[in-house]
Amino acid sequence: MNAVAAPALEIKGLCKNFGGMSAITDVNISVAAGERRLLLGPNGAGKTTLFNLITGVLKSDKGTIQSFGRDLTRLPAHRRVHRGIARTFQIITLFDKNTLRHNVVLALMGLQNRRWNPVTRIKNYSDLEEQAENVLARVGLDAIADQPLVQSSYGERRRLEIAMALAQEPRVLLLDEPLAGLSREERRDVQELLGKIPREVTVILIEHDMDVALSFAEKITALYYGEVLLEGTREEVVADPRIREVYLGA
Amino acid sequence: MKVKIMLTAAALLLVFVFYPYIVPSTFYVSLASQIFIAAIMALSLNLLVGYGGMVSLGHAAYPGVAAYLIIWLSTRGGMDPVSAVLVTMGTVTLMAGLFGLLALRAKGLSFLMITLALGQIVWGVAYRWVSVTGGDNGLSGLVRPAPFGIDLTSGHSFYYFAGICFGLAMFVMYLFVRSPFGASLKGVRDQPARMVALGYNVWMIRYASFIISGFWGGISGVLYAYYHQFISPHAISIANSAEFLLMVIAGGAGTLLGPLVGATLVLVLKNVVSAYVTRWLMLLGIIFVVIVIFLPEGLVPGVERLRLQLKNILRRPGGLSAKCSALTTSVFKSLGIKRGRKS
Questions:
Q1: DSSP 3-state assignment of B145?
Q2: Which of helix, strand or coil describes residue A12?
Q3: What pLDDT score does B324 carry?
Q4: Of these four, A5, A120, A132, B26, which has the most CB atoms within 10 Å of its CB?
Q5: Best interface-test mutation with B: which of A53, A104, A115 has the largest number of B CBs within 10 A?
């Protein structure tokens, strides 16, 4: 793979306004294949908006978004998933009434044409059921696979959400605050899970837990009021006085 | 488990076959036919409301247009039954496709308002386009067909015909709700944002369901026309759309049996109870209020919930007596009586 010619994600001159307010202004970001990138920024900096623009939930006003050399800018959100862009949500967004297994099956089916089948019983797809079981086993949730999601803890849900995104074997994974609201033990579990994400997957992370985020990220992009404040390696950014002031409480 | 399902199915089939011979008069046979027709309609609406989370208040437009078309094509158009049914169903499905494009620009309350407006347009056309629709007098003169040489003129044969159509609709719906597409529709109802993030085309899933729903509404309309051999604007009024919605919600939206239970409830009240109670509409209102208060999820899931709760109480050792004693204590307490045993 020619990583230099085709970055996993290349954002150029991206702009987004909400009414008169500018949420994202002329953002340029290039993320190499396999990289772990951290997005930093205070509340309202535009981190989640940027995720929504990359995934296509929001339409950009200006600029282009490319992934591995292919243009995504005009593609509807669900088509971008088929191009290998997966995400998790800041607020856990799962199917509470269904079992964990069904949640994963929905994730697996999302990229397959069988999702349109209106007659075959979904449970008859034994390959999907088994695959779902494997996905759950990888995150240590296989024991409760057939339990309705409402009965599981917040940490388990968070792991399930990441597992569902990984089940689709994405090329680019966007994680929106995967540690938010978790207990110390749950954080450790999720952190371990993040460490096991295969190297082929490019990861872009929004996270306020600095210990975890800094140990995970290789490069950091800091956003401030919708603009890129600075970008660099972990060491460069941590050493920057502006960042120290805002985040590290120097 | 499988044996139990088979036995239930066999029992239902027996009841269905012998029902016309058990009931005291043909009135109940035709009532059952009407229930089947309404239940197909409720099934089709349940697909949108229950499984898709899209509440439509103009759904009577589909059976309405289907009924008008089939009568017009068969009488004034001079078509044979097969082509008339095909043309009617094709047109109604196309209409659902067009209405879906308009209604699915919105969600929630706005979706409801657009379906309402579309339903009213259809009603207005039926009411005003007198040269074609007969205006207030409606259209009549449709002769029941004889599919495969089976004459449907008698109440009995039509009952079986309507029942088989309902069984077919039910079976298709049963397959649908357990299928991947059914799971997608339920997923879109519960978490549209997540479904998009998993690669599902949320709009297309809603749109396809909208058309399928319109199609089954059309089937119900064709049966309605053959049953009554008459259609007037009243059948597509907003009151009728609301009645269908009532069937779905009272029976249990998003359940397979809910539409049948809801249709039975409404039609029995309308046809049987109305003979004894002049203000049966008020009674319907009261029943609906009671359902909403005590079984807000509808009759089918509500009764199931109560059954499970009762089972839990009975299963717990000493659970029932404990519950009873707690209940009597609270009743006594509210009456201001102190409970104690005489020594």
A1: coil
A2: strand
A3: 66
A4: A132
A5: A115
